[in-house]
Amino acid sequence: MLRTAFVWDDVKQPVQAVLSEASLPWVEEDWRGIDDEEQRQKFDYLVAADRSRGFDLKKPPLMRCQLIRLGESRYQFVWSFHHLVLDGWSAPLVLGRVLENYESLRKGAPLSRIAGRPFRDYVLWLKRQDPQRAERF
After folding, report:
1. Do both 77 and 92 map to the same domain?
2. Do 70 and 91 have their domain in common?
3. Per DSSP, what are the bridge partners of residue 67?
4. 3-state SS of 14-60?
């Protein structure tokens, strides 16, 4: 899902396309020389600008990250994603895996490698579902 785009031009029905690669947009900024009030204002502007930017559904990944250093040991992290690729159930799962790996890196421990099922298995499962039953549900 992190490499998923959505295609609807020149096709009978919209489809998900999973690319072999996608680079996560990552921006780092250092605001340590800015006073707290200006940092708050600048952060509010950054979040508003990020929200208004939206996503191009044809160009994965449909997420981006920004890390802002506010002080020697203070950071603010902005993780933006489109609800087509992450929802209220899956976003905490992804964040949990990221935090587990961060903690491993911080401790110098090996990263955990949990083998997951391919996304295509989920798509195939979805195709086998009864749309009328889902609608009733």
Report:
1. no
2. no
3. 28, 77
4. CEEEECCCCCCCEEEEECCCCCHHHHHHHHHHHHHHHHHHCCCCCCC
